[in-house]
Amino acid sequence: MHARDAQRDLLVFALYLLFAIVFTFPLAVRLATAVPNDLGDPLLNVWILWWNATHVPLTSSWWNAPAFFPAENVLTFSEHLAGLAPIASPVYWITGNAIVSYNVAFLLTFPLSAFAAYLLCRHLTGRRDAAFVGGLAFGFAPYRVSQMAHIQVLAAFWMPVALLGLHRFVRGDGCRWLVLFVVTWLLQALTNGYYMAFFSVLVAMWIVWFVPWHRWRTIVSILLAWGLAFGALVPVLMRYRQAHESFGFRRLLDEVLAFSADLSSIFDASGLLAVWGWVHSLNRPEDEMFPGLTVVVLIAAGLLVGRLKALGFRPRAYLSPTLFLLGVILTGAAVIAVVAPGETSIVGIPVSANHPEKPMLLALACFACFALASPSIRDGIRHRSPFAFYVVAAGVMWLMSLGPTINLLNKPFLPIGPYAWLLNIPGFLELRVPARFAMLMVLCVAIAAALAYSRLTKGAFQNGRATRFQALLTGVVTIALLADGWMKAMPLERPPDPWPRGATHTTGAILSLPLGDPGDDITAMYRTIWHGRPIVNGYSGYFPPWYPALRMGLEVKDPRLLDELGALGVTEIVLDTTLDPDGAWDTYTRTRATRLSAVGSYATYQLSSSQPPAASSRASLGPALPIIAITANVKPDAVPGMTDGNLQTRWDTGPQTGKEEAIVDLGSARRVEAIVLSLGPFGADFPRDLQIEVSSDRMTWTETWRGPTTIVAFATAVRDPKHVPLVFALGNREARYIRLRQLGRDPTYYWSIAELSVH
Q1: pTM for this entry
Q2: Which of 16, 210, 433, 564 has the fewest CB atoms below 10 angstroms from its CB?
Q3: What is the helix, strand, coil percentage profile of the chain, to 5?
Q4: What is the distance between the alpha carbons of residues 711 and 724, in angstroms, rounded to a whole number?
Q5: How far apart are CA 29 and CA 44, in angstroms?
């Protein structure tokens, strides 16, 4: 019997795999010659999986991947994808082809996710047909199409298995199921840092719902086992924390808000979808969260069946529908307040809709009372119903995806959302994409759809076998689910070619020119797969603090930057001559390097080690002088941020126009040797053209420094990436006032000062 069950399960997996091959066709026949979706994040992940396959995880050499030279711990700049190594690395060891190993792992994320959800749903429903529906709903959800560029988001197959382990352990099936939960939770965390945090929220909800408090031993066992899994991650988390601290990396709240979903995101579908590609609400990153019609219909029908069973002719039975309707009306008023504020009417009743907060809060109160008054919901809570849990959990995961504040059509709707509570937990602010809670919503929706299907078709068995009607219904639902998530065509790109043999000659680090365009930089990084040398270029979730100055210095073709790179250990420059039609890059490179060869469209130059221009060091300065006052002609309210001892606060000007000015008052005439402008985490915000003047009376000014600060910013960021202190010598003059004037222009980057000191 067990062998027959295993054969049936194998057949189910084979069917999911067949769907995946057809779904992503022609990828299966182009495993070595194509990259799914685009040449951005997918190429980065190809490079990371190659690095995992060729180095022992968690070793120093593994962390120090060969990009962004001279940075260390480069693998902490992004997801390390170690959880995918058990799939991708053996493929690389067999084929020696990084593209094949990535594509196999990518392709398998679909059937593995579907099969994992199938196993969980089969346990919850006791039926293969309902489980098959749940697996399809998760493995081929429309949301996955919008995440084709992020293999770490698609690789969500460990989560259903972890939930299966919890369900089986709490049922009393033995400690091996708790071990399964620990192992799969850990593997999921090693695959995607977002899921480590976001899935933990779902697991916490699961424990509260399914484990009664009187079973405290069970709760303690789960928490202890879970704690061990967290403990195993401590070395990884500490490495990330130490590396990010050393570089001063942090996510701004503005980034988190930008990558949060909108309330209307649920009606936003990927344009690649064959059936639903026309469904759009906004054009925002990570916003395409349309769940598909089939799962919604199944869950709604399942809820209706449960409601009809609970509904009678008692007057109190109609209380919850009334509350629900009132909540919908109030929600409508809140929506109108955002979309079309002013006086309006709802079902003939005049309503003033100018502020969405009040009607929305009243609507939420009505929905809460509806939940408490609903017999079916109360029964679901009392009996710890899996269907009720996964419906409620899907709603919570969706709310979390909306981020710290809740917007509707890009306009403020509620000033605070549930995700704001999570920002109080260490590490959550580093996760800049709350919208990825959507995958957990999709998982909960898929499980709820399987349970609803089981509820709807209950009694359709005869003598333990499915009727023809049920088989037909399963077929219809299968087609509908596949139609919801089906693509018009699988987007494929041709991967870049390696540099021709003989394009590199020496040892040491390489600079690939041009630098700065994300496509060129990720291509240069990808080519380290062949030559294995450290490279100055890079592309990742974080960039080292010196990268903006490096890019801008190369754009203006400052030879001093090549001196700095040569002193750091860069020995070779490779130029793509197809991107240098006027020869400007070649001319610039020859100012400091000797041309060695030209192979194909690539010219190679040897950069000699040289002494870089002398850079002032903060360590060699005398003590800081007291500052009495600082005045600025822009954003004067932000001036205290320059001297509050906190690198995370700043004075900034907005985009640089050439008219920004700040004056430092020392209170009396003092001997001044240097002024230090620390950028902290705002490494790109150095002044494009700075003039520094000193004065004793604020009437007569003497210029002590003038010029672009690109080289200063690059050199100091390499030496002190956390503080990025720009040190400007003032000639040991006597002065009371120091005037800083920004004379350059930059329409994108600000001039920022995180901390200012005079010595």
Answers
A1: 0.89
A2: 210
A3: 50, 15, 30
A4: 12
A5: 22
Distance of alpha carbon 149 from alpha carbon 47, whole angstroms:
14
Burial of residue 754 (number of CB atoms within 10 Å: 0-12, 13-18, 19+) = buried
pLDDT per residue as tens digits for the range 158-175: 999 999 999 999 999 999
Task: Find out whether the peptide bond into 687 is cis, omega within 30 degrees of 0.
Answer: no
DSSP element (H, E) containing 219: helix 216-247
Q: How many angstroms separate the CA atoms of 602 and 202, rounded?
A: 52
Q: Identify residue 659 by its one-letter amino acid code.
A: K
* 731 — pLDDT class (breaks 50, 70, 90): confident
> Which residue is associated with the tokens 């593209």?
99
Map tokens 């957990």 to a residue: 440
Measuring CA to CA, which residue among 391, 370, 364, 369 is closest to residue 380? 391
For 562, phi then psi, to 5°, come to -65, -35
Quickly tell me which residue has 């380290």 as its tokens.
528
- Return the closest-CA partner of residue 537 out of 546, 558, 717, 58: 546
Question: Phi/psi zone of residue 459: left (φ > 0), alpha (ψ -120 to 50 degrees), beta?
Answer: left
State pLDDT tens for residues 592-630.
999 988 888 899 999 987 666 555 566 678 899 999 999
Residue the block writes with tokens 């504020």: 341
Per-residue DSSP letter, 57: T
Span 398-438, pLDDT tens digits: 999 999 998 888 888 778 889 999 999 988 888 999 999 99
pLDDT at 360 over 90: no
pLDDT given for residue 354 in this prediction: 53
Would you state the structure tokens that stand for residue 533, as one six-digit string? 């040398």
The C-alpha atoms of residue 132 and residue 144 are separated, in whole angstroms, by 18
Instruction: Note the Cα 371 to chain centre separation in Å.
Output: 34
Tokens of 382: 């009392």
Q: Which residue has the tokens 């709903």?
A: 137
φ, ψ dihedrals at 596, nearest 5°: -100, -45
Contact 724, 683 (CB under 8 A): yes
What residue has token string 């710890």?
384
**Closest alpha carbon to 673 in 622, 740, 600, 632:** 622
